[in-house]
Amino acid sequence: MGTAPEGEAVELRVHGVYGASAETILDHPIVVRVAGDQHAGFYRIRPGTGTAGAAGVAVEAYRWGALTAGAAVRTASMLLLLPFMLGNLAIWLRPTSTDRFGLLGALCRLLGGTLTVAFMLAVVGVTLNLVGWQCVPYVECRADRSYLSWLATVPTGPRLALLSLVPLLALRVIWAVGARSAQALEGFDPTQEEPEVSERTESLSTPGFWYDERVTSWLRQIHVGIGVGTLDASLLAGVSNGGRSPLGPLLFVIAAALVVCCAMLLCLPTPASQALARRLPRPLWVTIAVVTALSFTYATLTRSVRPTAGQLPGYEGAAAGLTATQGVLLVTIAVVTLARARANPAEGPPFLRGLGTPLVAALSVSVAAAFTATLVFRVADQLDRGNIPDPIRPNPPAIGPLEPPLAHWWAALAGLAALLIVAAAALATLLLSRQRRRALAESVIAHDFPHVPPHAKRQLDAVRDAVTKSHVTEELSPMLVAFFLISSLGLATIALDLIGVGPTQLAAELSGERGGPAVLAAYVTDAGIWVISLLVIGLVILGYRSYRSAETRRLVAVLWDLGTFWPRTVHPFAPPCYAARAVPELVKRVTALAGEGPVVISGHSHGSVLAAATVLQLPPAALPRVALLTHGSPLRRIYARLYPAYLGQHALREIGERLDWRWRNLWRDTDPIGGPVFNDHRSARPPCDNPAADSVDVRLRDPRALTIDPADTVPPPVERHWPYHTDPHYQAAVRDLVDRINRPGTDNP
Fold first, then answer.
1. Contacts of 382 by beta carbon, 8 Å cutoff, 6+ apart
2. Could you please report the per-residue DSSP string of 490-552?
3. Which pLDDT score, from 0 to 100, does residue 323 have?
4. Do 224 and 184 meet the contact criterion of CB atoms below 8 Å apart?
5. Distance between CA 617 and CA 333 in Å, rounded?
6. Are residues 483 and 418 in contact, defined by beta-carbon separation less than 8 angstroms?
7. Among 272, 275, 593, 596, which is least packed by CB within 10 angstroms?
């Protein structure tokens, strides 16, 4: 049952996001798995229970949704990895295909390193700074808390060393969460020998493109060094403050040097072989172990440290320095991206104004800052029973209350400003574009329904609204660019952060008084803290709901379907790349089926992207027996503009040429996601210089009619993005593609 009977044509359906069931894909209640496993499998209708699809064509479904939504714990825990996922995604939006291992790639990997530092500083800020340094010596904080009061009997040095075990454990957990799915999601070795790094053309047809385990394992070891070095430096800064022994400062310099050396390793090319990638880091592991052992030993033996009012020594500077480093990297990434885009102009209008890489990189930093600020503020608020000081409510002379770093105050204020301005930009964009979208909808209606009876006016209005709303996708770019600009303007706070000036202090200095503007700044900053906290808490609730509800888990999985499509080549703690299994698995299955008869790969929505990637990886011997049917496809409308280096017009042309243009793409004007691949009637720019491309796109009228059919009771529905396989044009396209495979050399219609 594993393959089709010899000579039988097969229609292989690949679903999109949201993880449709095999029964839904095949439109039949009784199915059986014929290949794969519970994570990703190939299904057919059980023999003897019915048929589906065009006559003489066996229908098979590839269900891969369980790779991202199969396990409740995995789906919920992946929300913690959102900053890492965004950091990994940024490099794939760059305008050229030659820079993943060049300057832009190095900058993105360095930014990924700062995300690891931010994660470690967040945990250090809670454990060493708030609990070990500020709360335990503060009588009012540890009162009635037996789980903290016993730490007051432990000297400061040993106490900080003991609490440092928590960040180490957190680093191990985040490592495990990011690496846990290697067998299920990345269990396919490259089918062909990988080229050398210098030979990579960064095409989806490159052999071994989807095999990222070598790069991920190399980066994972470096990021562990960055995380542990950050912890060691934070611990040593706390126990060496004011000490007379030169050993503490010397160890601090060594720990800082470890972080710098790991950052330098991120700028180097990945070792060419898996064995070399595993062998080279051995000195690094030895260094990490030795520096950590010496740091913990020194802290444990140091008994003369006396906590002072305020934060853990060096922590405020570390948080400010991290923000400054991220700001410089983001500006540099933006400059390099624009220079690359100007030197290599895209074939079509770039999405996000060509700022995809710096925008998503800025988003990763913003999300990480929101997570960090929420964690630190909420823990501080809980420990201090709601009495967090600010410049309007200063500290008393004694130790306490607890103080979060100024960097988090600025992050809260910047986050609130960004949300308000982006929301205003989104509202303005939608209102200003409505007339243009409405005019387009009118032209579509005039073409499809020139004569409408009066009683169908209500249905006509529904179609007009559907077409108008479906073109909102093209209007998202200004809103996201506004977010990037606001994030860039927020970098101006770095200088203030570095010199220790908070939002309310700045307002007080500018106004010359401690009331009025300063109080307003304090309230606005507090509001920003709560807004960011509520957003993060909402994500936590969503993660909990994902654990309890399969429906919510599928909704969360949509985010991972889009964000974890690309291999992990920037941050190793990002969620695993499911395409590293899905694409090679599809290639293997299609190759086997093509050896027996014609195969039509049918990809819906994001499944069309998997199908396109599969065609680009198929061996030449299988291609003459394969055709491609895409429907509701975002290949050109979204992916070609977001990822021009990989799925631009050159890649789409290559797909058509590989298949001798045995390709049909069905689309509707009411579809908010899918669209034409080559012939876009809304664009005046010629999409392709090959006349054969004219036969690819097939526009479907939606709905099929406005009036009620005599055999029906209601008008035909407006189907928008789903389903396509129930349309008669779909079955006709399958039949046509099978006939063209069986008649090689047939001219394109």
1. none
2. GGGHHHHHHTT--HHHHHHHHHTSSSTHHHHHHHHHHHHHHHHHHHHHHHHHHHHHHHH-HHH
3. 86
4. no
5. 31
6. yes
7. 275
Number of CB atoms found within 10 A of residue 318's CB:
22
The pair of three-digit structure tokens given for residue 213, joined into one six-digit string: 């385990």
Q: How far apart are CA 589 and CA 296, in angstroms?
A: 53
Hunting for tokens 């999300």 — which residue is that? Answer: 367
CA-based nearest residue to 85, from 368, 440, 429: 368
Residue matched to tokens 């070990």: 132
Give the chain's radius of gyration (CA, Å): 29
Cis bond upstream, residue 401 (ω within 30): yes
Q: Which two tokens stand for residue 369?
A: 């800052």
* Closest among 367, 374, 377, 565 to 483, alpha carbons compared: 367
Closest CA to 362 of 485, 251, 280, 216: 485
Is residue 130 within 8 Å of 383, Cβ to Cβ?
yes
Q: In Å, what is the CA distance from 3 to each residue of 386, 595, 596, 735, 737?
A: 65, 10, 8, 20, 20
pLDDT in tens, 701-739: 999 888 888 888 888 899 998 889 888 999 999 999 999
What mean pLDDT comes out for the span 623-650? 91
For 250-287, give one letter per residue: b (16+ CB within 10 A) or e: ebbebbbebbeebbebbeeebbeebeebeeebeebeeb
DSSP readout, 184-249?
HHS----SSPPPPGGG----TTSTTTT--HHHHHHHHHHHHHHHHHHHHHHHHHHHSTT-S-SHHH
Is 443 in a helix, a strand, or coil? helix
List 513's β-bridge partners, or say none: none
Measure the CA–CA gap between 448 and 446, rounded to whole angstroms. 6
Cβ atoms within 10 Å, residue 693 = 22
**Is the Cα dihedral 520, 523, 529, 534 positive or negative?**
negative
Q: Which residue has the tokens 């960004």?
A: 418
Q: How many C-beta atoms lie closer than 10 Å to residue 36's C-beta?
A: 17
CA–CA distance, 190 with 580 (Å, rounded to integer): 10
Which tokens belong to 197? Answer: 């790094």
pLDDT tens digits along 578-630: 898 899 999 999 999 999 999 999 999 999 999 999 999 999 999 999 999 99
Report whether 518 contacts 504 (CB < 8 A).
Answer: yes
pLDDT, tens digit, 9 for 90 and up, residues 470-527: 888 777 666 666 666 666 655 555 555 555 666 666 666 666 666 667 677 777 777 7
**Confidence (pLDDT) at 631:** 96
CA distances from 553 to 19, 22, 314, 319, 542 (A): 10, 17, 41, 34, 9
Please tell me the number of Cα atoms within 13 Å of 254 on its side-chain side: 17
